[in-house]
């Protein structure tokens, strides 16, 4: 049981780190995976090595976690944040090594017209093409803006789209 809980914690932490790099550390999916890792680690700590569950020994009602457990939780959350930051740094370093990248519009935000203006200015798109891209992004898709864009132009586009309220994913 302890081995399974530890495996679940490691997989959840790995998933949280991967998702944090690909979609940002504040996305609900990333936070959910991090919480799953923390819960699995707590369960691991509560399960004795003899195989008998310590959950039966917990008095009801369940008390607030102890100071030691709160410290462990804060250390784990700090570790996950550091892991996500390291992954983001690695992603940027890998991006620096390539001359061409793929760029996707991941979200539009509340100012769709501003994002359309930015797309038209950077990619020389017509109004209909830019609106179609933003509509598909609003529908939950991640439409491709360009599959072989220079990395410096991709960063400039991402900066301008974020300033307009949208979000761009560079791969």
Structure description:
The chain is mainly α. The protein is 64% helix and 11% strand. The protein contains six helices and three strands, in the order αααβααβαβ. The chain has helices spanning 2-23, 28-46, 67-97, 112-123, 127-138, 151-163; strands spanning 100-107, 144-150, 167-170. It has a three-stranded antiparallel sheet with strand order 2-1-3. α4 packs antiparallel against α6. It is elongated. The two termini are 39 Å apart.
- Number-wise, the strands total 3
> Which structural class fits the helix and strand makeup?
mainly alpha
Q: What would you call the shape?
A: elongated
The helix fraction, in percent, is 55-70%
Can you write the helix and strand succession as a string? HHHEHHEHE
The spatial strand order of the largest sheet comes to 2-1-3
Poorly predicted ranges = none
Largest sheet: 3 strands, antiparallel
Distance between the termini: 39 Å
Strand content: 5-15%
Q: What's the rounded overall pLDDT mean? A: 78
Radius of gyration: 22 Å
- The oligomerization state is single chain
Q: Total helix count?
A: 6
């Amino acid at each position: 049981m302890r081995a399974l809980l530890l495996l679940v914690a490691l997989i959840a932490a790995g998933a949280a780190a991967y998702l944090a790099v690909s979609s940002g550390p504040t996305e609900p999916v990333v936070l959910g995976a991090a919480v799953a890792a923390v819960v699995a680690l707590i369960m691991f700590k509560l399960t004795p090595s003899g195989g008998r569950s310590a959950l039966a020994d917990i008095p009801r009602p369940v008390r607030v976690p102890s100071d030691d457990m709160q410290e462990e939780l804060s250390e784990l959350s700090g570790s996950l944040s550091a892991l996500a930051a390291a992954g983001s740094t690695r992603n940027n370093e890998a991006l620096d090594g390539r001359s061409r990248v793929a760029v996707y519009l991941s979200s539009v935000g509340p100012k769709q017209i501003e994002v359309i203006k930015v797309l038209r200015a950077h990619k020389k798109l017509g109004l209909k093409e830019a609106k179609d891209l933003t509509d598909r992004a609003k529908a939950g898709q991640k439409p491709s803006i360009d599959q072989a864009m220079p990395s410096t132009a991709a960063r400039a586009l991402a900066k301008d789209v974020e300033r307009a309220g949208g979000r761009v994913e560079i791969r």
